[in-house]
Every structure is written in C-alpha cells, then in structure tokens.
Amino acid sequence: MLIFIILWLTYMLLFIILGITTGGFIPLQTSINSQLGNRVKTPFLSSLISFIIGALFLFILSLVTEADLPLINDTLSALPWWGYLGGIIGMLCLTLNIFLFPILGSVQTVVIPMVGQILMSMVIDNFGWLDTQPSPLTLAKLAGIVLIIAGIMITLALPGILAKQTPRPRSTTKSSKFIWQITALLDGFAFATESTINGHVGTVLKSPIHSAFLTFLIATLILLVINLVQGNFKKLGYLVAAPAPAWNFLGGVIGGINILITALLVPQIGISLATILGLMGQIVISLVIDHWGLLGAEVNKVNKIQVSGILTIIFGIVTIELI
C-alpha cells in the first residue's frame, strides 16, 4: 500500500511540475518574441518567424523520436472537424491581445483572460465537452476556484492598486471598456478551448508532437497570409541591418515545447488542472523575470503581497485536488 501511495505521489508530482513548467514558458516566449518584434517593427512578422522556427523544431523532433513523419499517415481522417481549430484559435487570441493591451492596460489584459481560462476549463471538465472525461463540479472545486481567482487578483492587481501605479489604459467610454472586458474574458475561454483541442488531437494522432506540429502549421499558414497582405516581409531588412542575438529566435522552440507538453498533460490530468497549473507557472515565472529584470524587462521586485497571492493560489489548487 505504501509503495502504491509513493508511486501515485511521484506520478502526480511529475505532472504538477510539467504543468507549472508549461505555464512558465509563456512569459519567456512573450518576452523573447517582444524583443524580436521590436527589431522587425511588427508583432505579426515576429510571430511568423517564431511559428516557423517552432514548426521546424517539432518536425525535427518528430524525425528523431517518432516512427513516421507528422501528418503523413491516415490518422488525420480520424480527427473531428474542430480538431483543426487549435491553430486558428491561437492566432485569434494572439491578434486580440494586441488590441486589448492599450485599451484595458497590462493588469486587466493578464487577469481577465486568466479568470476566463479557469472558468471555461471547469465547464469543459464538468460537461465533458470536446471528448474529455467528465469531472463533475463540486463545492470543493468551487471553493478552490474562488481561492485561485483571489490569489491571481492579489498577486497581479493588488500591488498596483495599493501603490497607485497601475498603468492607465487609453481613454474609452465605460460601455466600450465593458465590451472589451467581456472580450478579454472570451479570450480566456478561447485559450482553454485551444488547450483542450490540442490535448484531444494528441490522443487521436497518438502523438503530442504531431498535435503540436499541426497547431503550428495552421498558425504559420494564417500568419503567412496576414504578413503578405500587410507587406511585412520587407521589414526583414531590419534583421539584416542589425542582426538579432540567437536567443531572440528561441520563442518558437519554447512555444513548441509548451504546446507539446499541454497536448500530453490534458488527456492525463484534465483541462481544469492543466490550466490552473499553467497559470501558476505563468505567474511565478513572470514575477521571476520582473524581480531580476531578465530578458530586458524592467526590474520590479517581488513583494510580500505577491508571495501571499501565490500561496493563496497553491491553497486553491490543493482544495480542488485533495478535498
């Protein structure tokens, strides 16, 4: 019995570490892509470069680890129609965030989609949508959700409110701002849906690598069209005139690993826990980057309020999983 408990705890600890790691990749990828975007003067071209590199990385990884090439066999025919939407949803979320940031400000742009991801992941788990295993919503889970949302607010929003240093978004009417806040919430819903789709695709294709590659391939094709329409390829000259350091091109590799791990985790632990752990990792790594001013970020020391917020999130996760 003791051996069984130890093995179970080891199994859960492994997935917890993976879940937090995949969330931690997001701020790293965002910081790196932002640096590249500053060099080429447009986020769309930066994203295209990132997705191309990520797709190549996943293709090579597939050659090394898999028995066949990605998407060459007949497993694609087993995908439902919505199995191809992961890359499209990811692109829509990326484009939406470009508009949200100057309107809502940095705090709301981060916090509202996070809340949306948590709520949508719980709904998906409760009803078993997108071919997931149903996991009924309980009072313990509801209490855990409240604690996690409170922890997010304490960590990300409260320090700025107390210091009265929250970045001011551009002027908008109250009704217009409310519409954008609802849009940000829907953005979070979309992120959770994308993760669920990628997890299902990985199960059907019997390879999280192939699932991640399909997502990157679709997103790359969409970005290619956008950049062609906008005439952004001439801006590649900025990279020729002032070559970027090698780490500026690692965003695609990090993004590929992120989606790969997500496609592996969701079928194993469910979208709700995968989302919550990912958000935990995203917050922690964001604070680490700010605390030490990594990747060109401005130094912003972590305070006791933010630490208490993280502990509240951890308590919420424990409440959901163990009570």
UniProtKB/TrEMBL annotation:
Gene Ontology cellular component terms for the protein in this record: plasma membrane
Record's keyword terms, sorted: Membrane, Transmembrane, Transmembrane helix
Keyword flag Translocase: no
Residues spanning the membrane: 6-28, 40-61, 81-103, 110-130, 142-162, 212-233, 245-266, 273-293, 305-322
Entry keyword Membrane: yes
UniProt-listed InterPro entries: YdcZ
Pfam families: DMT_YdcZ (PF04657)
Protein name according to UniProt: DMT family transporter
